[in-house]
């Protein structure tokens, strides 16, 4: 499966906004600087995350982007949908119709492949939905020594 590069960027932006080392609201310029990416690229990702209600923004002094959900309530699926959309990835085009006689007989095979791909995609989406941003944060937070 191929992902847009912005999927990784969107995950990083959400992690950045969840990081308590930064202010609660961060401007797109600050996010671009921290991620070392262009402001146009960052703004495109931010707009997608806002559209899918993963983050929000305030304008004016003290404004910026911020999380609107707890990290326990944001899954990788939320971010995936923001970047990739919600359309199915596999769409049979019935190409065999162009060169095979009786290609309609092949349709049952195409339907079998389409069914398999749909089940695989559903399993993938369920897996993304099961992984929350809070898990990613906990997995990469250094343990504090208890001395």
UniProtKB/TrEMBL annotation:
<dbReference type="Pfam" id="PF02082">
    <property type="entry name" value="Rrf2"/>
</dbReference>
<dbReference type="InterPro" id="IPR000944">
    <property type="entry name" value="Tscrpt_reg_Rrf2"/>
</dbReference>
<dbReference type="InterPro" id="IPR036390">
    <property type="entry name" value="WH_DNA-bd_sf"/>
</dbReference>
<dbReference type="GO" id="GO:0003700">
    <property type="term" value="F:DNA-binding transcription factor activity"/>
</dbReference>
<dbReference type="InterPro" id="IPR036388">
    <property type="entry name" value="WH-like_DNA-bd_sf"/>
</dbReference>
<protein>
    <submittedName>
        <fullName>Uncharacterized protein</fullName>
    </submittedName>
</protein>
<dbReference type="GO" id="GO:0005829">
    <property type="term" value="C:cytosol"/>
</dbReference>
